[in-house]
Amino acid sequence: RLYGIVEGGDLAYVEERVDADGGLVPHLSARLSRFVG
């Protein structure tokens, strides 16, 4: 899993999986925006 702060202060998330050759490939990604209630 990779996490990071991206442009605009949002949190980005990427989950990678191992393919048949043993390399990592992106599987799922999300960009989370801060919400103050």
Description:
The protein has no helices and three strands. The protein is elongated. The chain is mostly beta strands and 37 residues long. The protein starts with a strand and ends in a 5-residue tail after the last strand. It has a three-stranded antiparallel β-sheet, with no helix packed on it. The chain has one domain (2-32). A hairpin with a 5-residue loop joins strand 1 (2-5) and strand 2.
> Largest sheet at a glance?
3 strands, antiparallel
Shape: elongated
List the total number of helices: 0
Regarding quaternary structure, what we see is single chain
Q: How big is the Rg?
A: 13 Å
The span between the termini is: 28 Å
Beta fraction of the residues?
over 45%
Estimated helix fraction: under 10%
Kindly give the count of domains.
Answer: 1
Order of helices and strands: EEE
Summing up helix and strand content along with how strands pair, one would put the structural category as mainly beta
How much is the average pLDDT? 92
Number of strands: 3
Order of strands, widest sheet:
1-2-3
- Enumerate the spans where pLDDT stays under 50 for 5 or more consecutive residues: none
